[in-house]
Amino acid sequence: MIGFIGSVFSPWYKWSGRRDPQDHCCINVATYGPGGRFTMTDRGRPALRQSRDRLQVGPSSMHWTGHQLVITVDEIGALPMVTPVRGTITLTPQAMTEVEVALTPEGRHLWRPFAPSCRIEVALSQGHEWTGHGYFDANFGTAALEADFRFWTWGRYPLRDRTLCFYDATRADGSTLALGVEVDAQGEAREVAGPPLTPFRRSLWAVRRETRADAGVRPRQVLGMLDAPFYSRSLVETKIDGEVTRGVHEALDLRRFRQPLLKPMLALRVPRRRDWIFK
Hints:
Elements: E1 2-5, H1 11-15, E2 25-30, E3 38-39, E4 42-43, E5 48-50, E6 54-57, E7 60-64, E8 69-76, E9 84-93, E10 101-102, E11 109-124, E12 128-141, H2 145-148, E13 149-158, E14 162-171, E15 176-184, E16 189-191, E17 197-200, E18 209-212, E19 220-228, E20 231-240, E21 243-253, H3 254-257, H4 262-269, E22 272-273
């Protein structure tokens, strides 16, 4: 689940010239398995309300209570599953960090791993009800992703006594980012080198994938979550510091995303709703 102000993957935001982020906001929800749905409605400025502790986009919202993030979902699935997606997601961080990382030297893109280790409770329609572990982070930017990056992968892996997050990217100028952040149960964070960057099987759309793994270990996909011509999200098993772990992995090919013909395809999955009236 992702909340966007300036919906970076929306073709409507791109076609608008990206002049007004608040006029292209979205609560994106993706569920997997039987009954899985995908929602990413690009909504206009009238649908956006913000305060210090609350983000509301049309009928859906995120509310920080002081110790939990409570997400209320009331969306409509994208084609071909055009049905309601409703319910609540409650995220309880184990601890919060104050980490902020610049992903580019001039700081046009920032990443904040607010809480890499959380308890999560999910109660959504189509039978998606479960509890488990999750994470809470955010990205901020003042430029289009494809303007500053060619490709990136990101992975979050829970271990026995800590959580590891890895960002590996090739920037538009050819320079690279190799970032590892380790966060313990008390929220103390430190930068780590991590094991070698290791390729594994490409996605269904042949997006290149790689992540961190101990020498001699080949990561593998356990569950495919989301596949697009430029993007892959999956549950990946790897081994780090001798410990087998399963975590969420993303791969993003911005060279593909730049292709103009891709935008009309995306518009079929990302409808535009310009107006909204709060009752």
